[in-house]
Amino acid sequence: MKQFTVGVVVASLLVGISACQTTPQSTTESSESNQTALPGKGVTARSAHSNWTEEHFQTEIVNIGLEALGYQVAKPQEIDYPAIYLAIANGDLDYSTINYERAHQGFFDNSGGEAKLEQVGVLNPQGISGYQINKKVADEYQITNIEQLKDPKIAQLFDSDGDGKANLVGCQPGWACEFTIEHHLEVYGLQDTVEYDKGQYIALLADTITRYQQGENILYIAFNPHWIATVLKVDEDVVWLEVPFTSLPEDQLKATEEDTSVDGKNLGFARQRQRIVANKEFLAANPAAKRWFELVTIPAEDMNEESLRIKDGENSPKDIRRHAEEWIEENQELFDGWLEEARN
Prior knowledge:
Layout: H1 2-17, H2 32-37, E1 44-45, E2 48-49, H3 54-68, E3 72-73, E4 77-78, H4 83-89, E5 95-100, H5 105-110, E6 117-134, H6 135-141, H7 152-155, E7 166-169, H8 176-187, E8 194-197, H9 201-213, E9 219-224, H10 228-231, E10 238-240, E11 261-262, E12 265-266, E13 272-279, H11 280-285, H12 287-295, H13 300-311, H14 317-330, H15 332-343
Parallel strand pairs: 1-3, 2-4, 7-8
Antiparallel strand pairs: 5-13, 6-9, 6-10, 6-13, 11-12
């Protein structure tokens, strides 16, 4: 509730930011042929993403397509969850590429739900997440399930600050995974033996990789697509830990063991479809944009490759725009086909 309240305050501030960016709700082309070619002419499209740099790449690809459809695309704003959802619901923004379908269900519902918002398309059909540890310690101590960390002797293997508890590298405050991890520590009985390290996820990962390279044991929340999957490879460097049973916070969509399992392992986090979330009125007034949102898909392996380029230092807005343009060039025929369908 505290996170949500902060989000409300932040979102309300956006009204002032966007006051001079009033968005026409429909195109006004006088020529029918030009309207067919540029259905978005006369409309400004406003988006936002979080400070998760990889989301910039996905947003750029989507925005380049909107530009080709004639839309004037405002510079994307960088806002945290759940304020993005509130801003879109209130009409201060039009869309975002950051809808993680199950994990963000609470953000979606608390911002007006289907009355104001709509989830569109599938940018990435199967994102996965879960807990990973280094393979060496997993093999040596036969650790396969996070519930084994209830044993203080097992937990101490992952103690990086000397207090006797396992240090679990988690995600940063405000993200949906923060609440899932806290829920897991409670329902799996791990609060006495596991310490949850919160903070900037990228900085925490950098420290995790350094400790792994120095021969220390590591325990962290992992995502795919993300560059971590290309640096610490599953079954070579690390392994997934299973959970004893499926249990997620109440504000997430109900999930079965099948929903949280990957390759026969119950990872505890539901597989996620990443979608675009948009203002319902904007979609109704702009069918070309809606169709574009429905069509754009970016393979997980391409997101991983981009994520690694960002991690290796190519992380400026100019770099990421170039990456998006290169991705489009490599997928030009597909991209042009999506544009043609959106125009029609």
